[in-house]
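Appendix B, Record 12. Input sequence as logged:
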Amino acid sequence: MPKNKITLALLTILACSFALFSFAYAEERGREETLKDQAQEDALKNQAQETPLKNQIQETLELGFKSETWARIVPSSKVKASSGKISIIDADNELSYGFETPQGMPVHFYFKQRYIGIKNDGISLNLPAYLTQLTLGADATLPLFWENTYVRLRVNPSYFGDNWEMHSSAFRIPFQVIGIYKPSDDLIYFAGVAVYPDYRRQVLPVAGFISHKWKLNLTPDRPSLTYAVNKMFSLRLEGGATWDEFELEKDNASGRVLRYKETHAGLGVTYRPNSWIEISALGGEMFGKSLKYRNGDGKVVIKDSAFSEMRVVIKL
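Logged structural output:
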């Protein structure tokens, strides 16, 4: 056989071998990529199962920085069994930061300051011009032994007074213990207790559920029933109560404890134009209002009246 034909045959054999090898290599690479994509998809599914609270129902997480500010205005109201009027403005700001542990459980730290302004018009009882509250708290959600079951622990060391200078006798440490059960991605049940040491009412129940459209939140400070009309608007029935006790220091009132009590209920609407801001308005009736010194030095019972409330939440 001529030498050039042998060379051509060898080149042909090499080219065919290279083509077969390239085809086999490409097929193997394609199979590896498919397996890799499938592994990544399975890993994402497993991660979602291992962190079931993550990105499922945002109300239970609220990770990152958050600022919540509200003001509740009670117009001038007459006092029962006496002359004179009282008007009250109740304002609050809470700054919080939430993050997830490596195990996927949410933890929050927050700082809260509250101001209750009291305008006394013709009432003989000596009342402070304002009351103050400072709270530095934290909560954590931990898994329990049962599947899809968790417990949330929340501690709220708080100062209640009539100035911004904290002293030990005005401290209280309310706390909450709440059990959480999540049967599906779109439904969460919770129940527990809120404990208020050194208060007249020391233990109160907590319960509710969160679904895709509805949220029932039976907490002592802000019970509500919310319906999400769409992603931007929600409607709610909301109530609330205050029975806080404030230790006074100003105007020769050292050591006296003033109890502010009220109950309110109303209708509200929340507007969420985007993921980082929401604006709420609430209006209704406030009743059972009173300012009473704990040692029997005097009491003012205020007639029922309307109230209005504005709330702004910013999430970063």
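The chain has two domains: 1-50, 55-315.
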